[in-house]
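ARCHIVE CARD
Drawer: 12
Card no.: 0347
Subject: one protein chain, sequence and derived structure
Cross-reference: see card 0346
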Amino acid sequence: MQIATDAESSVPKSLVTGQVARVRLLTGLLQGVLLYAMYYATKHAIWPVTNAYFSAPLALCLLFVPILFTSAIGHLDRSRLWKWILAATVICIALGLHDAWRMDYVGNGLTDTSNPSKFVLSGLLIVLTAGGLFIAHALVMAAAEDAKRIARYYTYFEVAWKLAIQVMFSLLFVGVLWLILWLGASLFMLVKLSFLRSLLDQPWFVIPMLTFAFSTALHVTDVRPRIVQGIRGLLLTLMSWLLPISVLIVGGFLMSLPFAGLEPLWATRHASSVLLGATALLVVLINAAFQNGRVAPETARVLKMGARLACVALLPLMVIAIHAVSLRVQQYGWTVDRIKAVACLMVGTCYAIGYLWAACERGQWLSRIAHTNIIAAFIVVFLLFALFSPIADPARLSVHSQMARLDAGKTPVADFDFHYLRFEGVRYGNAALQELKSRTQGADAELLRHGAEAALAKTNKWDRTDNRRLADDQSRSRNIRVLPSGQNLPADFLGSNWDTSGNAYLVPDCLRYANAQCVAHLIDMDADGVAEILVEGEKNVSRLFLFKKEKSGLWRSVGMVEIGYGCEDTLQSLQDGRYQVIPPEFNDLQVDGRRLRFQPWFESRSACKQ
């Protein structure tokens, strides 16, 4: 598919010379040397990694700034080049400083020089910084190409796709090079020569080699623009033909909602993430069909129709997703994940409104998509910076929300999650715990102090003991719904001490904590005339826990079954009484006192999957 004239195919205009090539390769090598130096300092616990406020910004700068410089040199004049590199450096320093600061709180030990390894840059920060800098870099390069603050959409398209394919093929090049070197090492090992194998085990060689290879691949793909354009055209053409299928699926889903209702969506507890994923997929496929905005004459009618319908379908998806998140916020307040979801919803809503605006256009085919994409790019860059800075740090906002709900009485003290503040609220959450620890006023001051002190004493994120009020027989009787209706759980079962039984990991939360609820079924599972107790796990509908009373009179957790995600109908059928107890397909085999149990090969791990 021809997407541009020959005169236009040279976008962006290149100033790459032999000197530029040498600078690029030298930059890649220097980046590797500096990264190795930082690795060496980390391994031996020496400066600069002993100070998180220095090592975090330095790590971000070394990871991204040299790559931006390598890509930009030869395309930006000297003034623009250094302004952009300086701006990118300042951004990396700011993000790194904030990441270190938010993780530096009492008991975390990030500034403890005796153990600098405690601080690790957030993986999400690294990934999203890469994404944000990629978008910003494309905006800068395109603006320089057109000599305008806001470039033409055509230029943005060409620059962004060229950069994306350069990065993908550079990573592929580095990966293949690594495989070739390991193959060579294996070949030499066949003749008892281990020099190459030993060399590949040395970080001083591997790290600079990989960065040098990456910069080499960036340069080679930069001076072969026609190859990049051909790959891009083929990729987008293939992806665009997935659009009609996606429109049929999403359209069928939307048309089924008036009949199925929204309750099944809320029951999944992840409806908003699925809806956001569907929105992102449609946006990508719409752009695969739209491309640079100049391919309308060559685009098949079915793709044009599919793209227009997809533009219309985005807004209903976003409305439902917004409603799903708002329900959770009203019930439980803001959390880190919900704030991130709202950021995604803001971007998705921008696309939904803009693309609907484009779908209503007469004349040129969806030309308003170009304006929407440019606006969305700037919004994404701003949101990413805001989320990883004090402006809209999800931890800060969520801690403020949870504390406000506690103070307003919306969240009872018994249900307040001190553990969340300790390990998800980072600096802000621990400051809130310190405030709760010092409270002396109010009827619940003692409970708050106890919960805050217990949470602050924790050093392990996975240790949730003492963070919630422990259950007793009264709370278990109140919080466990028993089926069949009218039945009661045995008093000795309700009074059992599951926290000290040695198998607490096999016990649902409703038996351990006073604020957890679940459903229990009285079912004779072994046909001995005495009912066992089958308990549905709270907040984990994929498991059923089985309890049996031993001859000693103690209740013991004897088994568990995986129901599987997306199998809520199975649990509902169980609660409705639509079940029967049947013998196993194969009996057990006892050999010298040992019981051997057979499981068919074709049996799925998930109990409801056939």
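Annotation on reverse: The longest strand covers residues 555-562. The two ends are 44 Å apart (CA to CA).
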